[in-house]
TrEMBL record:
Residues 139-148 have a biased composition (Basic and acidic residues). It comes from Zoogloea oryzae. Residues 121-161 are annotated as: Disordered. This is Uncharacterized protein. Residues 149-161 have a biased composition (Basic residues).
Length: 161
């Protein structure tokens, strides 16, 4: 696949997160990119990346939702779990540069306006303060962790009967 941009790797990672159980809507992919720490800032570049992914048989559209093909899922497999986003983007970008599609497929009709609408919808959802299921959970303090675990009890000493 040529040329490879960081946005291509970010799109693959965001779509992996957003479409884990079912094909994802565009706004869900934008939210996943925001959670990764690589928010969508240019609708034009992201729309072009969508079209390029579809042309190279990495993404398909299913009833207005998007999901990765098995070839794209293979590119995202076995990434280090403790790696930060920059490392993951670098690794995925390397894998994308080595990828050659079996054949070119039809492109996904993605416009800049669609991307900008998804970006605006995500921004509106973020301002509402509602619960975003893609957001990482905050770390608990030691005090909260101790309360969650409860008091320590020993199960020895007294037998039944």
């Amino acid at each position: 696949m040529y040329p490879i941009n960081d946005i291509d790797a970010q799109l693959l990672l965001a779509t992996l997160i957003a479409s884990k159980r079912r094909p994802a809507e565009l706004v869900e992919i934008v939210a996943a990119a925001d959670v990764l720490g690589c928010p969508v800032t240019s609708g034009n570049l992201w729309a072009e990346s969508f079209r390029r992914f579809a042309t190279h048989d990495l993404m398909v559209a299913v009833d207005g939702r998007y999901t990765l093909t098995p070839a794209a899922l293979a590119l995202g497999e076995k990434l280090p779990k403790k790696a930060d986003t920059a490392e993951r983007v670098f690794l995925v970008r390397e894998r994308l540069s080595e990828y050659t599609p079996a054949e070119k497929t039809a492109s996904i009709p993605m416009s800049v306006e669609q991307m900008e609408a998804a970006m605006a919808e995500h921004a509106a959802n973020a301002k509402q303060g509602g619960k975003n299921l893609l957001m990482p959970k905050p770390k608990l303090t030691e005090e909260e962790e101790q309360r969650r675990r409860g008091p320590h009890r020993r199960f020895g000493g007294r037998g039944r009967g």
